[in-house]
Amino acid sequence: MGLNVSASFRSDIFPGWTRFRHGAFQCTVVVDGPIHAGPPAQGFIGAEARELEKMLNDGFLPTDAITLSQNLLVVNTGEKLVLFDSGCGRNERFGLRHFGSQVGCLIPNLRAAGIAPEEIDLVVLTHAHPDHSWGLADDRGERLFPNARVAVSSVEVDYWTDLSRVESVEDEHRKDQFRGAAFNLAPYRDRLVFVSDRTEVVPGITAIATPGHSIGHHAYVIESEGRALIHWGDLSHHQIILLQRPDLGFVFDYDQEQAIATRVKMFNTIASDRTAVFACHFPFPGRGHLRRGGTGFDWIASPIEIS
Ligand SMILES: [Zn+2]
Predict the structure, then answer these.
(1) Contact residues for 117 (Cβ-Cβ < 8 A; gap 6+)
(2) Which among 88, 101, 221, 294 would be 20 to 30 A from 107, CA to CA?
(3) 127: CA distance to ligand 1 center in Å?
(4) Tell me: the pLDDT tens digits for 209-228?
């Protein structure tokens, strides 16, 4: 008798979610879908292509192209339901056009996890780049999270919604970074909650200014029952390359030097304090720890648990 395995999921939705407990908080990780980021030397700045390929090969990963996971975190504090970042969205003009049809799976995967978009009280943005803010509005520019406020740095909003900057960049992707952020943030314009360093957005969740990758990038410390988990946004886009070589840049860094300085400082603190990490772009579900090793740090992934 042979195995009878059927592929039953819709191919246009990249499926996945899981759940874990952090102190008294219930946390859900939802897949938005992978970003195919092309050859490593296009993404990471400051190393030879063959050096990047060796790191990937040593990590048992393909050497010709980088794939970024997109893990989106929902924290139920018991009082508030908080979503961190919104993924790429499935807007024809933005997410699907620039990232292909596998992204923008947040809403169906949220529903699969038993969470309705209407229930989200607050969307916390680490920054307003496409893969973090383009999932806020639908094709018509309506709120996908109709009852949510959006917590974000005012510096970040001012920069990315300033459409006069469209003319200052060359390629369509960079132009759409401004247009897409403005389009997705517009329906929340009266619902913005501005954060800066050490702002407590809801009890137990505190912003940490971590500028560099974007002008107003913030990480968030999630604390419950004496335990800390840091959602570090885009402090690292890769679980090997930017951990082993935290001194490299990433192609979409706003200020590469500042991004590197912020990354190195945060990595050292996180490793010394043994703080648990939530990483958007690391392999699903993106939860783990940093340990000093090799030329930088190793990623020690935490096992999946359902609680
Ligand atoms: Zn990102």
Answers:
(1) 107, 110, 111, 144, 145, 146
(2) 221
(3) 8
(4) 999 999 999 999 999 999 99
